[in-house]
Amino acid sequence: MALTLKLDAIEDLPHTAASDVKKLGWRGVMRAIGRTGKVVVTNHSEPEAVILSAEEYGAIMRALNDAGSQHESALDALRHRFDERLASLQADDAGDRLRSLMRGPTTLGGKVKAGDTH
């Protein structure tokens, strides 16, 4: 069963006082978590801990892994483009190509030259 990851602000999560946790015990806490998947335990009305169901924790971990994979894919593509450009600078004729480019005309005939082809 896939769980949609919903990231709520801590203020928007269900709260229970630490004293209630002590009174109700673990079963009471688990009943509250069973209803929402998560609960904030407060001490003097200040958030002290967030308790998550195993399912909620798993959903967060999957979302983080997916986000990391997407980030890695983008980073790999960027690394590949950089390596290609670096390889062209390390080619045996790189110096000759640069000197030829520098000797060429510097006017662009009123056109802007930008992007990957410059």
TrEMBL record:
Gene3D superfamilies in the record: YefM-like domain (3.40.1620.10)
Region (Disordered): 98-118
Protein name: Prevent-host-death family protein
NCBIfam families: phd_fam
Domain of life: Bacteria
Organism: Luteibacter jiangsuensis
InterPro entries reported in the protein's UniProt record: YefM-like_sf
Family: Belongs to the phD/YefM antitoxin family.
